[in-house]
Amino acid sequence: MHRPLLEQALRFAAVGTAASAAHVAIALTLIERAGLPILTANGLAFTSPSRLLYRQSQLDLHARRSPRTAPASIHRDLACRLALNQTIVFTTVTWAGLPYLVGILIVIAVVPCSPSC
């Protein structure tokens, strides 16, 4: 792998991992300590600054490909991923009756790997 590409991939992975850890920590805190409903807490955790930092790294990638459409593209992608995120949590908790942590962990495994909308 080309050195700059490897460094970019490692940086992207580190930011994604930190954002996912923050998502779990924020969601659990809002559910367990603040008593917020699961979907509210999960939505807030997803749109937290750590998630936006992760999205900023993707914006950098989009801007290199198409500078004029990058902001619209990143906002559409974020909205689609939030919808997918909430759908997964709703389905696992409400329909399947699984603990919310299972839903959030499925989100972390699926949403970052999902194609852009």
Describe the model:
This protein starts with a helix and ends in a 7-residue tail after the last helix. With 117 residues, the protein is mostly helical. 79% of the residues lie in helices and 0% in strands. It is built from five helices and no strands. The chain has one domain.
In short:
The chain has 117 residues and is mainly α.
Quaternary class: single chain
**Sheet of most strands:** none
**Class per helix and strand makeup:** mainly alpha
* Straight-line N-to-C gap: 28 Å
Shape: globular
Number of domains: 1
The SSE string, one letter per element, is: HHHHH
* Percentage beta strand: under 5%
Radius of gyration: 15 Å
Number of strands: 0
Average pLDDT figure: 81
Count of helices?
5
Helix content: over 70%
Uncertain segments: none
